[in-house]
Structures
1.
Amino acid sequence: MLSLPEIKQLLTDRQLNVVAERVGIHSNTIYRLMKTEKADYDTIKKLSDYLEGQLENAKQ
C-alpha cells in the first residue's frame, strides 16, 4: 500500500475529479487530502489500490 505522501505525489498530474469518480469517492475528499495530511484508512486504501493498478498497467 502506498503512503499518503506517495499518493499525493502521484496525484499531482492527474485530474482529481476523474480519479474520484473511478475510485468511488467524492472529489472534495481528494481535494482535502491534497491540502492536508489527513485522510481515513478507506480513502488511502482505495486511492492506493487505484494508483498501484495504474502503475502496473504502465509497466506492461
2.
Amino acid sequence: MTPREAVATAHESHPGDLQSLELTTTRSGVVYRVELATAENEADVVVDATDGVLLDSRIERSDSFDPADPAISLSDVIDAQDAMQSANTIIDGPVESWTLTHSDGRLVYQVDFEGKDREIDVDAFTGDVVEIDD
C-alpha cells in the first residue's frame, strides 16, 4: 500500500486536511498513522500498510484557536523512499519509521533508524538533510 492509498483510506472515514503521515511498526504489523484536521475536529487514523484495512480511528474535537499547519499535499513532496535515501547518507542502516510532518516551520520527513538514538530531518520538497537530532 502506498502513502497515497493510506490517505485515501483515511479520507473514506474522515474528512480533513492531511496534517501528518507516519509509517511505523507496531505489535500488529506495519501501519500508516494518518492525521487529518478540519476546523472542528482532528482525526487520527491507523491503516494497515499491507492490506489497507482501517484498524483504528479516533476523533477529537478541536478546542484550540491555533490554526492547523498548512495541509500537506503528497503530490508536492518527494517520495518517502527518496527521503530515506537522503537520511541514509548520514546514518547507514535500516529505517525503523518515518513521519511526514511540519517541524520548526518547514515540512520534513523525520526518519528514525533501528537501534539508533538519532533522527534525521529531510526537507520534504528538496530532499536535503536539514537537521540531525542526537
3.
Amino acid sequence: MAGLVRSVHRNGPSDTWHVELLDELAPAERPAPFMAQRHVFKSRSAALEWLGIQEWDATAEATG
C-alpha cells in the first residue's frame, strides 16, 4: 500500500508530490514500480501516471 501526498509549506501548497510506500520494505520486496521507499514528482498527474492510474477528468461528460 502506498500514499500520494502533496507537499505543503507555510506559504501554501507546493508543486511537489510524494508517492511513498506505507510499510518499510527491503528493496527486493518492493512492488513495481518502486525502486525506493519514496519517489518525488513535479505534478499529481505525473505521480498517477507513474503508478499506472488514469486521472479522472471531472469536466468530462458522462456516457452511458
4.
Amino acid sequence: MNLLAFWFLALVCIGVEVLGLVIGRQDVHYAGALATAGVVAVHLLLVRRNGGTA
C-alpha cells in the first residue's frame, strides 16, 4: 500500500468517525474507528513485510 492510498483511506475513515459524532450516532463513530484501526494495522503489516519501507 503506497502512502497516498494509506492517507486517503485513513482520512475517509476519520471522516466517518467525525460524521458519527456530528450526527450523534455512536455506531457510525465506532465503525469509523474500527475501520481506521484496520487501515493502520494493514499498513503496518505491509511495511513490516517489505522490510521497513512503505
